[in-house]
Every structure is written in structure tokens, then in C-alpha cells.
């Protein structure tokens, strides 16, 4: 009997060790970072996985809160569940409420949660630039903690990739000068990594490569300490421009992204060097960063293959995978499914099937990158048997418009999970081009991590408002119900509607990259604004409320800019100079008011973005290069003639007053002159003038923008409500 008990104890012990990996010190350090001074009120314990899935438990014992999980990630999720549901706290990018009760609430009974999803993926290549371009360790540490709190276990991790490529290509004999013509500037890595551009925003300083290789090691160490399995990068064929000269016999083809940049060069997977370089890269990367056997590769992200021949696509796919597997036999290819939506005319069932079926099912995972609006899984027989991940894209270019599809996000993942047609759906993901905006939408999406049934969006937003603002408030509840059914019931557009203020000046209602038509009634948003203003005296101490009030005020004013601009345009076309002057001056005044409003929150400061960029440099030359990158990305996205200008537009303090307003003032001055002189407006002359001015602005280093917020967010919002509410509603 005693022997049996010993054997049983050994089996149980082995099972716990095999299925539960909790670093006690790391978990207590994490709790201390999240709620300083409170870690001694918690007990951390390990339990094994359940049916191969992550699990957590929560209960009270001996005056402490017990957090159990099979890894650090589950422990973190247990803590987040407790903070949200028992302490009514909320931790987010844009406002955090950690006003804990003096005595921590008791958990009655046992809370037990198992995730239905093997994988919970996070990030998009573009996020690393539209939001994360200038992050150092302190900001990364906060984000990794946020990932853990929200149950993310599969983050894309591509910081420092350029340092590995430098090692590989220098070993192949490429010079620093040749690589300077290859590596882009730091704000453009995503499109360099994806094989769209070379060199723009460079040359890349050596200090950047060295410092970010160190940063990546810290990122990976912390992510792995929670039990996350980071997705690293791999070779997709993008080679330096000098490759064709150094290896004249290689099968190198030119391709172009069609965005105004020079051709880039792609090594054909049929070339024997393809597998050699791919193997070298994985080996060099593993030496520096280790591996969890997950590798991202997007062979034709926004480039069309040279042929739709199935044999070619099958062979190409095998070569890409073999270049990973040659270095790591356990390699799993993680593919963004973006191209199947973006170039859907090319990627018909036959072509998709050829690409996917070339790789063993269990060695490829497909990200259905845009499931929240344009799913591909339901028109490809769930990727023909490949494991795949339902993902929310939501954001394009890091734009900050209020936007989302909340009811879809609340229900569609679990509906897909239980749909027999979804076949090998293994997880959910959050894949935005930019973050640090629309925090409620992301919080709702991540509520799915520990749920396998649809979430009641109406109940959820009321609970969210309570914990975000630190108290229940009927006015706030009503406002959030309106937000849910207006800005957060978005249509099938690429992100939220933009404001005409960010457009290069025009008399038109909208231009390319600045689509101003909201798919909701703007007056409904004014109702929500009114409710939040009326709730302000009760909720103004909440950081999250201050952010939300400023954000809603900003969006109301951004929407109002369109009818005001059209009144100006009509007055000009009617040659009514008096009315033209009235509306154009009101338009400029609106921009000043928006800038003053946004100055009250650090979240909305251009100066924060620029100063964080400059902080990465160790010489003035480096600092100025990074500032150019920072200014250019959010404005022109290229040179003077860039076809991508305004793609990454932001309604930020500093950017409105320092960039958008001067363009409009220049335009209005010329229009007014044409009315005074009764001559035609010279479109070509203005076009040249504004392009020259924009390029000068992008290249400035004048220390003009602060990273310190100023003014009272609530009082400024109230002032603007008093000034604009009736005007917007058309009562005067």
C-alpha cells in the first residue's frame, strides 16, 4: 500500500511538473509590478493543464487570494480576472483604474477557467512601426505584462531582426555600404521585413542594430518566462539590391509594391541559394535568440506572384518551408492570411490550396487576419484543413478614429469555434496595424480568451464602464450603450472614418486615404458626448474617463469638420467671399480647439512620438534621422510625391496645429486671393507649394513639440461642449 501511494505521489508530481510550469519568483515580481506593495496578499500555486489547454483557478484561503495556473500566463490571467470582477479595476493602454479596496474582497468558492483556444496570437508586422517603433524596455515590459494579464500566449516577436540579417549577409561577403542600400530606417522595418521596400528612412545606424538585439533578448526572456511561445521571423526571399551583382547566376527577380518606391529584389525559391540563406538565417537567429519553433513568413504579402500556376505555387511553398525545416526540423510556419483578402482576385481556391497543401498540416498555422470584417476561412473550407486562428484586425495605419465591430467581436469567435465548418480552428488573435486606441474594443475581444460562448455586448460595456471609471454611473452606462450602437457598430470599411482636417486641402468631401463618411449617425455620438459631459463631475477623477471624454469630444469635432468644410466649399463656389471667410476662419478655429483639447492628454501628443524617436539616438545625426522617420511616417509616408500620404494620419496635438492647420491656412489664403482678384485658383501652383512645405516640415528638427500634457481634460471638454454642441446640432 505504501509503495502504491509513493508511486501515485510520484505520478502526480510528474504530472504537475509536466503540465504546470510556474516560476514563483517571476509571478510574484509580476504581481508587484502590476499592483505595487500588494504581492504579499496573494499566494501562487501550480496546477496542470486541462485537456492540453491553459487553465487558472481563483479562491480565498487564510486571508489571501490564491492564484493557480499551469504557467505564469495563467497566473497573470487569474490576477486580471480577480481585479476586474472583484475589485472593479481595469488595466489598459489609455487610462488605468487600480483603486483597490482597502481590504481585498473575498472569493467565495472556487473559480475555475479553461481556455478553449490553444493559441492566442498578438500583433501584426505593422504594429511594430505604427505604434511600437520607438519603444524601449520600460514600455515593452508594460506591454508584455498586459499580454499576460489578457492571456496572450503567441506574440509576434521581430524586434532586432535586422541585426541577424546583418550577420548573415556580412558572412556572405556583403559590405556595410551594400547593406546601407538595403536596411530601411526604424519606422519602416515592417515593410522592409515584408519585402516591400529597401533603404527608405536609412541608412540604419549600427547602434540601433546593437541596442535592439539586446532589447529583443529581454523581450523574449520575459515572454518565455510567462510560458508564451514567441513567433520569430524567417527568410522569404527579400535580398539586397547588390545581390544580383554579387551572384549574377542567381534567379533574382524585380518586384514593386506599387506605392511609389523603387523595385526590390526577391530570390526565387527555385534557386538553390534560397534554402541555404533561409537555413543560415534560422541558425543565426537561434544562436542569438533561441527558438520556440514558430516562424513567420509571408511570401507575397502585398505583391502578386509571377504566375498563378499551381505547380509553381506548390513548389515555392515547399522551398520556403524547407528553408526553415533545414535548420529546425520542428519548424512551424505561421502565415498571415492577409494576401488572400488583399489580392483576392489572384488567390482563388486552386492557388490557395496549392500554397497551403505543400506543407504538412501540423507544420503550418494560418492567421485569418481580418476575421472581424472579411473572413477568408469560410470561403476556403477553413484553409483546407490547416490549423488557423480567428483574428481581429480593426486598425489601419495607427489612425485613432473611434471604430470597431463590437457585437461581431463579442460573438463571432465562439460561433466560429463551434461551427463544424471551421474544422481546425485552434485559436483567436488580435492583429491590428496600430494599438493604443479604442481600448474598449481590445478589452472586449480579449474577453473571449477564457470564454467559449458569445459575450453579451450590452452587459459587457456596462461592466467595463464601471470598472474603468471606478464606480457605476447611469449616464456613463447610457453613453456606452450609444457608443456600442454607433461608432462600435462599424461597417466593412478599412478602419474608422477619417476627418477632413487631416486631408491635403481640398473642396471635395474626401480624398484618397481620407474617407470621411461615418457609417453611423454623427448626432448619436453627440448624444453620448452630452451624457459623458453630464457625468463628468462624478467621474472626473478617473484617468480612463478623462481619456474617453477627450476621445469622444475629439471625434465629435472631427466629424463636425466635414459639414463646416462643405459650407466653406459651397461659399467659394458661389463666389461669396464674406461667407467663405466666415467658414474658413471657423474651420481653422476648430483645429485650434481640437489641438488644445488633445494637448490635455499625453496619449494624443505628437511631441511624445517625436521625443521617443529622438531618445533612441546617441548622436545628433542619429536623433535627427529618427525624427525624420517619425515625422514622415505619420504624414507623407515617403517622399514629396508619395501616394501613401495620410495613410498613417493621426489626430494629435502638435500635428493638427503644426502640420494640418498651416496647410489649410495656405489653401484658404490662395482661395481668398482668387475671389478677391476674380481669377481661377491655380491648382498646380498650390500642389507644388504645399508639397514643398510638407517636405520641409518632415525634415525639420526644431524642438517645436512638447511631450508634456497641459490643461485640464475635463474642463477643456466642457468648454468645447458649451461652444460647439448647439452649433453641431444645428440649433444656431
From TrEMBL:
The leader peptide range reads 1-20
Domain Alpha-N-acetylglucosaminidase tim-barrel: start-end pairs: 120-451
GO BP annotations of the record are:
carbohydrate metabolic process
Alpha-N-acetylglucosaminidase C-terminal domain residues: 460-723
A single MF term (Gene Ontology) = hydrolase activity
- InterPro entries documented for this protein: Hex-like_dom2, NAGLU, NAGLU_C, NAGLU_N, NAGLU_tim-barrel
Name all Alpha-N-acetylglucosaminidase N-terminal domain ranges.
26-105
Keywords tagged on the record: Hydrolase, Signal
**What is the protein's given name?**
Alpha-N-acetylglucosaminidase
Amino acid at each position: 500500500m505504501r509503495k502504491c501511494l509513493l508511486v501515485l505521489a510520484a505520478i502526480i508530481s510528474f504530472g504537475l511538473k509536466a503540465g504546470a510550469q510556474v516560476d514563483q519568483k517571476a509571478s510574484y515580481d509580476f504581481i508587484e509590478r502590476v499592483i505595487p506593495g500588494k504581492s504579499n496578499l496573494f499566494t501562487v500555486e501550480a496546477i496542470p493543464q486541462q485537456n492540453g489547454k491553459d487553465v487558472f483557478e481563483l479562491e480565498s484561503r487564510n486571508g489571501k487570494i490564491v492564484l493557480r495556473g499551469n504557467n505564469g500566463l495563467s497566473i497573470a490571467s487569474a490576477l486580471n480576472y480577480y481585479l476586474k470582477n472583484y475589485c472593479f479595476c481595469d488595466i489598459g493602454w489609455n487610462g488605468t483604474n487600480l483603486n483597490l479596496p482597502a481590504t481585498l474582497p473575498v472569493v467565495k468558492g472556487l473559480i475555475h477557467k479553461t481556455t478553449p483556444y490553444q493559441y492566442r496570437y498578438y500583433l501584426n508586422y505593422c504594429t511594430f512601426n505604427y505604434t511600437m517603433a520607438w519603444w524601449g524596455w520600460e514600455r515593452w515590459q508594460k506591454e508584455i505584462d498586459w499580454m499576460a494579464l489578457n492571456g496572450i500566449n503567441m506574440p509576434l516577436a521581430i524586434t532586432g531582426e535586422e541585426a541577424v540579417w546583418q550577420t548573415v549577409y556580412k558572412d556572405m561577403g556583403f559590405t556595410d555600404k551594400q547593406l546601407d542600400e538595403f536596411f530601411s530606417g526604424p519606422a519602416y522595418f515592417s515593410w522592409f521585413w515584408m519585402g516591400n521596400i529597401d533603404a527608405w528612412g536609412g541608412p540604419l545606424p549600427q547602434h540601433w542594430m546593437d541596442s535592439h538585439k539586446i532589447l529583443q533578448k529581454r523581450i523574449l526572456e520575459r515572454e518565455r518566462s510567462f510560458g508564451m511561445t514567441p513567433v520569430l521571423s524567417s527568410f522569404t526571399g527579400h535580398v539586397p539590391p547588390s545581390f544580383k551583382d554579387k551572384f549574377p547566376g542567381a534567379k533574382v527577380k524585380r518586384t514593386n509594391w506599387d506605392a511609389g518606391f523603387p523595385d526590390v529584389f526577391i530570390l526565387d525559391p527555385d534557386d538553390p541559394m534560397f534554402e541555404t540563406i533561409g537555413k543560415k538565417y534560422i541558425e543565426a537567429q537561434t544562436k542569438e535568440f533561441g527558438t520556440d519553433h514558430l516562424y513567420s513568413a509571408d511570401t507575397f504579402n502585398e505583391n502578386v506572384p509571377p504566375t498563378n500556376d499551381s505547380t509553381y505555387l506548390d513548389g515555392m511553398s515547399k522551398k520556403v518551408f524547407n528553408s526553415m525545416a533545414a535548420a529546425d526540423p520542428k519548424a512551424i510556419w505561421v502565415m498571415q492570411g492577409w494576401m488572400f483578402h488583399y489580392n483576392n482576385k489572384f488567390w482563388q481556391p486552386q492557388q490557395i490550396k496549392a500554397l497551403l497543401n505543400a506543407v504538412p498540416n501540423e507544420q503550418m498555422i494560418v492567421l485569418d487576419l481580418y476575421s472581424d470584417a472579411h473572413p477568408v476561412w469560410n470561403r476556403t473550407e477553413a484553409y483546407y484543413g490547416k490549423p488557423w486562428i480567428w483574428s481581429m484586425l480593426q486598425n489601419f495605419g495607427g489612425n485613432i478614429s473611434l471604430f470597431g465591430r463590437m457585437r461581431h467581436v463579442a460573438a463571432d469567435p465562439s460561433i466560429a469555434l463551434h461551427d463544424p465548418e471551421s474544422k481546425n480552428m485552434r485559436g483567436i488573435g488580435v492583429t491590428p496595424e496600430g494599438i493604443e486606441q479604442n481600448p474598449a474594443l481590445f478589452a472586449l475581444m480579449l474577453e473571449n480568451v477564457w470564454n467559449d460562448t458569445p459575450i453579451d455586448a450590452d452587459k459587457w460595456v456596462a461592466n467595463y464602464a464601471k470598472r474603468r471609471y471606478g464606480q457605476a454611473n447611469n449616464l456613463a452606462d447610457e453613453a456606452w450603450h450609444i457608443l456600442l450602437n454607433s461608432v462600435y457598430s462599424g461597417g466593412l470599411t478599412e478602419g474608422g472614418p477619417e476627418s477632413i482636417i487631416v486631408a491635403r486641402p481640398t473642396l471635395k468631401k474626401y480624398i484618397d486615404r481620407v474617407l470621411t463618411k461615418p457609417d453611423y449617425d454623427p448626432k448619436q455620438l453627440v448624444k453620448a458626448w452630452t451624457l459623458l459631459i453630464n457625468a463628468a463631475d462624478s467621474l472626473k477623477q478617473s484617468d480612463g474617463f478623462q481619456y474617453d471624454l477627450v476621445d469622444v469630444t475629439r471625434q465629435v469635432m472631427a466629424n463636425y469638420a466635414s459639414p463646416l468644410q462643405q459650407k466653406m466649399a459651397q461659399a467659394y463656389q458661389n463666389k461669396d467671399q464674406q461667407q467663405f471667410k466666415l467658414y474658413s476662419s471657423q474651420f481653422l478655429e476648430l483645429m485650434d480647439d481640437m489641438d488644445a483639447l488633445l494637448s490635455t492628454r499625453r496619449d494624443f501628443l505628437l511631441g511624445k512620438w517625436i521625443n521617443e524617436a529622438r531618445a533612441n539616438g546617441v548622436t545628433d545625426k542619429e536623433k535627427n534621422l529618427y525624427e525624420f522617420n517619425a515625422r514622415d511616417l505619420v504624414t507623407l509616408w515617403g517622399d514629396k510625391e508619395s501616394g501613401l500620404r495620410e495613410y498613417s494620419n493621426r489626430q494629435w496635438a502638435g500635428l493638427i496645429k503644426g502640420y494640418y492647420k498651416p496647410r489649410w491656412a495656405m489653401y484658404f489664403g490662395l482661395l481668398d486671393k482668387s475671389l478677391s482678384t476674380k481669377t481661377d485658383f491655380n491648382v498646380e501652383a498650390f500642389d507644388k507649394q504645399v508639397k514643398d512645405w510638407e517636405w520641409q516640415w518632415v525634415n525639420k528638427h526644431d524642438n517645436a513639440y512638447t511631450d508634456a500634457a497641459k490643461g485640464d481634460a475635463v474642463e477643456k471638454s466642457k468648454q468645447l461642449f458649451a461652444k460647439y454642441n448647439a452649433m453641431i446640432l444645428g440649433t444656431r
